[in-house]
TrEMBL record, chain A:
Belongs to the SLX1 family. The keyword Methyltransferase does not apply. Its main location: nucleus. This is GIY-YIG domain-containing protein. It comes from Sordaria macrospora. GO terms for biological process: double-strand break repair via homologous recombination.
Automatic annotation (TrEMBL), chain B:
Residues 378-390 have a biased composition (Basic residues). Keywords: DNA damage, DNA recombination, DNA repair, Nucleus, Phosphoprotein. Forms a heterodimer with SLX1. Coiled coil: none annotated. Residues 23-47, 65-176, 192-256, 300-326, 341-397, 440-462, 502-700, 728-754, 767-889 are annotated as: Disordered. Residues 241-255, 306-315, 345-354, 449-461, 585-594 have a biased composition (Polar residues). This is Structure-specific endonuclease subunit SLX4. The gene is SLX4. Residues 622-632 have a biased composition (Acidic residues). GO terms for cellular component: Slx1-Slx4 complex. GO terms for molecular function: 5'-flap endonuclease activity.
Length: 392, 1005
């Protein structure tokens, strides 16, 4: 079969690998809502929410056509999903969120529901349903529970209480695997300026007085949060302290494999990433009470050495940064040496945790039914994705 | 005369009181104007002078001024310092304005004119004052309106320094508002106190003499101008309005001059330039005028001899425009005018003749044009006469034809259609030749343009070819700029052909526009190729020489049917209809021997047609030709026609039939033997022996989604194979394609071609063709959906054919070409096909049976026929064929018909236990693969763990590689990209296609 061989040959020849980048420090899919007109929503993705928001609001060059209407500005980032391991992953998520009626990731029955009322375009494609906050939240919940995205350890941020309540309305189903974070502090004021520090006049937010950033401005845009982790990794491999795999005990030759390090401070457990994954997956299966599933991507687990919780995403972030992002590492570490911002960053991380707790307290059962909001016409929001790509 | 006139004017002073009174009134109103605003003046003044005509008012005013001035200020003329002049000018301006206001006709128009006048006046006045006595010049000057301009300009340097022009300019600027002038004037001089009277008073004392000169001059010219506009009336009104004798005299003089010429001449003259006529009279009047005239004349012609020749010159001028055709239409029609020769021969002919001729011509033209419009059809159909040549060489007698005779003549004429520019620029011969060729093409399609093109046409042809095809070339490309791949010549047979021949064959088709190489060359190549072919040992094998013939006949029959169905007006003579015609040409070689006339198919083949007019004209002629002669089916039906034609062409690959007559038989026979030679034996491949992967690939190659069950796959493949063999011998780019030879190497571009959706209108079936090599991924491209328009595709095919015909005669003969256009299933992605399939409504499928092609016995009955040239239309159905077959796998059919969304739903539901099993194995295969020793090249497992986006194709390839992947974990099957994708999604693995949605290669992740 000549064609067969030919095809395979082509395949093999084309397997030239693109050198992937390290996992981005932050990549988010956000939901914008028009301040003057709450029914207008916009879904986009970006690695730098503050910058992107300023673009949408016309404070910086760029932005999206759909958000260019002056009557709809300013826009708020009312919700945001972070933790995407790559731009492509974020774009996929964004697209799925924008096209819940088409995305294969959404269960068929749900999708068919959504598809029901939709007309078709001339091309035969289904028209995109109008965005409503309820619908978007539903789609978001659905997507976060989907297998494809469920194992990425995504985190959902809510910066607007109203939106969060809409989200909470359907909180009953427990399939959600994403972490939900709320930060309602000072969003409105934060909108006034890009990078401007939100003045936290929110009573609930303890951090307000500290002048801490809120909302999207509190998001870590670089690798600072894992800086210590990174330095640890650097040190370990600089001095070849990796020793044997923490799981399989095999000796690990430096530079001859992919070795992940326990992210917990003080723990220098190093191991093959497949060993790590197997270990973590085993734990997961144990937790779930089932025999070993055929999952391949761990989410989180417990370090076999220090028994501290480890997030697979963080580990991979550090690993990819180490093996692929030397430039970023250098930048990160240089910064640290120069300025003593390290401590600050640490503090920031801690504050975040505190904040989260406080927000958790805030959870109240509010059953107000937000009116379904209708976006004008959201057929062509694909542009957002490309714009975002452009802004990468 | 001049003296008398001036005297008269002076003498006319007694009349002043009448006029003066209004003038007196006027000044007081001026102040209101001035004070009020610019707009104000108009309403106030009409009260007093509402009845006065503008000219009359001007005259009176001027006279008034003159009277006043000379009486009071005749002495001060030596004081023509700048100031005085300025004042005078200002005053004059004021007066003029007053007149305008008095007339109150149209404030906007007149002020504009008048301001100019004053300025001229000044200059003139200055000159006059310097040279002659003030009183005289005004009267004389009054007549020539235009002179003043020239005079003023010329005079300026002499009499006045810089100051005056400025003043005039200022006036010009402040044209409409007299107040402004006044104000300016006052501003300079301490007179502002009396706004209303000021203008009048100052005039009298200071500028009187000068003004006298100026004003009369001004007034007269105004009259003249009007005369210019409305020639006949001017003479009358001006005398009536004007009190002065001079005015009266002028008309008389002009009349005297004009009358002598003939009536026609008069008419023309009246419309001609009058000023010249006037001039002589003026010249006679005054010396100064003579000078001025000189100036004027400088502009026109010889000034000195103007007096006697005045009328003649005017005549000459009238002629002048005729001589030189200035519009394109003039240029275009110039050749056909009868008058022209006369004009040329006798440029000095009297005006009478010219005018007469002109009228005749006009009538003649009308006669010709009208009938032409009415009878275009008839005329065009008639054999082309050398009409153009006739007209030019032999100047017709200038005869007015009776309408009947004219009609007759016209009917006898053949017309050349084209834009006037073309008609001008083009060789009439060329155009005629074109027409002839087109007509002949209609009658004798067989004639090969290359071989037959007569010597006289040949160079035309070459010319034509170079320029013409751009549109076609463009049309032959799809959005991506790739050549539409309507034809791919299968090289199955080429295997046997010697290298040289192959090269020959490839060269023409290599994508180099055919235009570049002369037809002769191609011809030669074809011949050679043919010879080689004929001598080819393979040839003897052809047992069934008659096959193609039968097919063709069948086709032709079909075509006729189609024609009947499709063409609204049944062609008067069926032979002329392309469909009916083509078969004939194929059948009867005798026709082929018919003259060298270039054959032109409508949109089909631009390149081959040697004698087509340059671009635009070509198109134009084209349409005409087809509308009238060929009864080309409406665009909607052209598909049929094209398909038919194409198939026929493929049947007789090379158009050089004249020479090939003997060989053509061979050529036609060729396909059959070569078919036989086809490496793949008719028995279909034993799919049972294929591996699962191979099977899945095969199915994919047919455009089906991967099917899990092996049995289903096999049965589907078998059916596909059967249908394919029944329809066509080859499916290009399909994995199952039996033909070992890759598509014509020269055709790299073609291979790349994007999809072509052919829409057969009659059936309403949309046939989707997916690109063979490049499989689009992700969201369906919008470009894919649109149906490729018939014309481009057609053109390409023809082009190709022509090109290929030369060298690849054997190949085309092999009938592979028809198969090429067949929509090629995307080899790898089922997705793409799904999308394309979306276009097919269920109903259409049912209808497809009714589709002439589908239902045609060719498809159903004989596989042999399938291989026939006719295959292209039928081949286009290849895609849809599986659906037609009852026994076909229902899954596949359904899948293909599903919309993307629905299909995706099916995806999920269809995940069977076998798939789950497969997934398990995939997981195991990936996780158990050895870990990498090089961090830069992680294993799949590690890549997944690191959240790297997985390229589906690569992973699939790896999984299916023997010794690795699935093979290593004991899974004998193979995984398709779709399965891999689903697996990835189920595992949360980020996956991407290698190519982006738009076909771009990913540069980053």
């Amino acid at each position: 079969m000549p064609p067969l061989s030919k095809e395979t040959a082509k395949m093999s020849t084309n397997t030239t690998q693109l050198q992937p980048k390290p996992i981005p420090a932050l990549y988010t899919v956000y939901i914008l809502r028009s301040q003057p007109r709450h029914a207008s929503l916009y879904i986009g993705s970006t690695p730098h929410p503050p910058r992107r928001l300023s673009q949408h609001n016309g404070l910086a060059k760029g932005g999206a056509y759909r958000t260019s209407k002056k009557s709809l500005r300013p826009w708020d980032m009312v919700c945001l999903v972070s933790g995407f391991p790559s731009m492509i992953a974020a774009l996929k998520f964004e697209w799925a969120l924008n096209n819940p009626h088409k995305s294969l990731l959404i269960p068929a029955d749900k999708r068919s529901e959504a598809v029901k009322g939709l007309g078709r375009r001339k091309t035969g494609h289904l028209k995109r349903p109008r965005k409503s906050l309820v619908g978007v939240m539903e789609a978001l919940r659905m997507l976060l529970g989907v297998k494809s995205f469920g194992r990425w350890g995504l985190r959902v941020h809510f910066f607007e209480e109203e939106v969060w309540r809409v989200w909470e309305r359907k909180n009953s189903d427990g399939g959600l695997r994403a972490e939900v974070v709320t930060d309602f502090g000072g969003l409105a004021t934060a909108l006034q300026g890009v990078g401007e520090e939100a003045d936290g006049d929110d009573d609930d937010n303890d951090d307000a007085q500290d002048g801490k950033k809120h909302g999207i401005y509190a998001l870590p845009l670089d690798y600072m949060p894992i800086k210590e982790y990174v330095t640890k990794g650097q040190e370990i491999f600089e001095f070849e302290r990796q020793g044997g795999c923490v799981v399989c005990k095999e000796a690990m030759e430096a530079g001859r494999g992919l070795y992940a390090i326990c992210p917990n401070i003080g723990c220098e457990a190093v191991g093959h990433i497949d060993c790590w994954s197997r270990c973590l997956l085993k734990q997961e299966a144990k937790r779930a009470g089932t025999d070993k599933g055929d999952e391949i991507l761990p989410v989180k687990g417990e370090c076999p050495k220090c028994h501290g919780e480890v997030l697979w995403r963080d580990m991979m972030k550090e690993l990819t940064l180490r093996i692929r992002g030397q430039a970023e590492v250098d930048k990160l570490l240089k910064k640290k040496k120069r300025a003593r911002a390290a401590a600050k960053v640490k503090a920031k991380g801690k504050d975040k945790a505190i904040e989260k707790e406080s927000n958790a307290k805030r959870k109240t059962e509010v059953n107000t039914t937000p009116q379904p909001m209708i976006v004008e016409d959201s057929e062509a929001s694909e542009d957002s994705e490309f714009l975002d790509i452009a802004h990468l | 005369m001049a003296h008398n006139d001036t005297i008269d004017i002076i003498s006319s002073s007694p009349e002043f009181p009448d006029l003066f009174a209004p003038v007196a009134k006027a000044p007081p109103r001026k102040p209101t104007l001035r004070t009020g605003s610019n707009a104000a003046p108009i309403p106030t003044e009409p009260v007093g002078f509402g009845t006065l005509t503008s000219a009359a008012s001007i005259w009176r005013l001027s006279q008034v001024v003159e009277e006043e001035n000379p009486a009071q200020k005749s002495p001060p003329k030596p004081t023509t310092t700048k100031e005085t002049t300025a004042i005078a000018t200002s005053v004059s301006a004021v007066t003029v304005e007053v007149s305008t206001t008095t007339t109150t006709t149209v404030p906007g128009d007149k002020p504009a004119k008048k301001p100019r006048k004053p300025r001229k006046k000044k200059d003139e006045t200055t000159t006059v004052t310097d040279e002659n006595a003030p009183p005289k010049p005004p009267a004389r000057r009054g007549r020539p309106p235009k002179q003043k301009d020239a005079d003023g300009q010329t005079a300026l340097p002499k009499s006045k320094p810089a100051a005056k022009p400025r003043a005039s300019r200022k006036k010009a600027e402040t044209e409409q508002a007299s107040c402004r002038f006044c104000s300016c004037f006052y501003g300079r001089y301490p007179v502002p106190e009396e706004p209303s009277k000021a203008p009048v008073a100052p005039k009298a004392p200071k500028s009187a003499p000068v003004q006298i000169d100026d004003e009369p001059v001004d007034l007269e010219p105004a009259d003249r101008r009007r005369l210019d506009w409305t020639p006949p009336l001017d003479d009358g009104p001006s005398p009536a309005a004007g009190n002065s004798s001079t005015v009266k005299e002028l008309p008389s003089s002009t009349i005297a001059h004009i009358e002598p010429p003939v009536a026609f001449g008069k008419l023309l003259d009246t419309y001609g330039c009058k000023p010249e006529n006037d001039q002589p009279s003026e010249v006679t009047k005054a010396d100064v005028l003579g000078k001025r005239k000189l100036i004027e004349m400088v502009a026109t012609t010889t000034t000195t001899t103007d007096n006697p020749t005045g009328p003649q010159t005017s005549l000459a001028k009238a002629k002048a425009p005729k001589k030189k055709p200035r519009t394109i239409t003039d240029l275009a029609t110039a050749a056909y005018r009868i008058q022209d020769p006369v004009d040329d021969s006798a440029s000095t002919v009297t005006s009478k003749q010219d005018t007469l001729l002109g009228y005749i011509d006009v009538e003649d033209d009308k006669a010709t044009t009208k009938p032409s419009d009415a009878k275009t059809k008839a005329a065009s159909k008639k054999p082309a006469k050398p009409r153009v040549s006739k007209k030019k060489p032999e100047p017709w007698k200038q005869l007015l034809l009776s309408p009947q005779s004219a009609l007759r003549q016209v009917s006898g004429q053949d017309f050349v259609f084209g834009t006037s520019s073309q008609l001008v620029t083009e060789d009439t011969d060329l155009l005629r030749a074109l027409h002839e060729s087109m007509k002949t093409a209609g009658n004798a399609p067989d004639s090969d343009p290359f071989t037959s093109s007569p010597a006289k046409f040949s160079n035309l042809a070459s010319r034509r070819r170079t320029g013409n095809n751009k549109l076609w070339r463009v049309g032959a490309r799809d959005e991506d700029g790739d050549l539409l791949d309507l034809e791919v010549f299968d090289l199955t047979e080429a295997v046997d052909v010697p290298e040289d021949l192959l090269q020959l064959a490839n060269r023409p088709s290599a994508g180099v526009p055919e235009e570049t190489r002369p037809g002769k060359e191609a011809e030669g190549k074809t011949e050679r190729a043919i010879e080689i072919l004929s001598s080819d040992p393979v040839v003897p094998e052809r047992p069934t020489a008659t096959r193609p013939e039968t097919q063709i006949t069948a086709l032709s029959a079909k075509g006729k049917e189609l024609a009947r169905h499709t063409t609204k007006p049944p062609p008067p003579n069926p032979v002329n209809t392309p469909r009916a015609r083509t078969p004939q040409w194929i059948r009867s070689p005798s026709r082929e021997s018919t003259p060298p006339q270039p054959k032109v198919f409508a949109r089909a083949k631009t390149p081959p047609r040697p004698t087509t007019p340059p671009r635009a004209s070509a198109v134009l002629d084209f349409d005409f030709d087809f509308d009238f002669d060929d009864y080309e089916p409406p665009p909607s039906n052209q598909e049929h026609y094209q398909l038919l034609e194409q198939s026929q062409k493929t049947a007789s690959p090379s158009k050089t039939q004249q020479q090939q007559q003997g060989q053509q038989q061979k050529l036609q026979q060729q396909p059959q033997p070569q078919k036989k030679m086809d490496p793949r034996p008719p028995p279909r491949p034993k799919y049972e022996l294929f591996t699962d992967a191979q099977l899945s690939r095969e199915t994919a190659s047919y455009g089906f989604k991967p099917i899990k069950r092996r049995a289903a796959m096999i049965s589907l493949l078998e059916k596909c194979w059967d249908s394919k063999m029944g329809v066509t011998s080859t499916g290009r780019g399909t994995g199952a394609d039996p033909i070992p030879a890759s598509p014509n190497p020269g055709r790299g571009q073609a291979a790349k071609s994007a999809t072509v959706l052919k829409e057969v209108e009659g059936a309403g079936i949309k046939l989707a063709a997916a690109p063979a090599t490049k499989r689009p991924r992700g969201r369906p491209k919008k470009t894919l959906a649109p149906v490729a328009t018939a014309s481009p595709s057609r053109s390409t095919t023809n082009k190709r054919e022509k090109a290929a015909a030369a060298g690849t005669a054997n190949q085309t003969a092999a009938s592979t070409s028809k198969t090429a256009p067949i929509p090629v299933m995307s080899a790898s992605t089922p997705k793409r096909q799904r999308i394309s399939v979306l276009e097919i409504p269920d109903s259409d499928i049912d209808d497809s049976d009714s589709n002439p092609f589908a239902s045609s016995p060719l498809l159903a009955s004989s596989p042999l026929l399938a291989s026939s040239p006719d295959a292209s239309p039928s081949a286009s159905q290849l895609f849809s064929t599986p659906e037609k077959h009852p026994g076909q796998d229902h899954d596949a059919v359904e899948m293909s018909l599903l919309t993307e969304c629905e299909e995706s739903l099916l995806d999920i539901t269809s995940s069977t236990s076998s798939e789950a099993n497969l997934f398990k194995h995939m997981t195991r295969a990936i996780t158990t693969a050895p870990r990498t020793s090089n961090p830069a090249e992680p294993s799949w497992h590690e890549m997944i763990l690191m959240y790297d986006p997985i390229i589906l194709e690569d992973l699939t390839a790896w999984l299916n590689t023997a010794g690795q992947g699935l093979d290593s974990v004991g899974w004998e099957g193979e995984a398709g990209t779709d399965e891999v994708r689903r697996w990835c999604e189920s595992k949360g693995v980020g996956w991407v296609w290698r190519e982006g949605n738009r076909g771009q290669v990913r540069k980053r992740f």
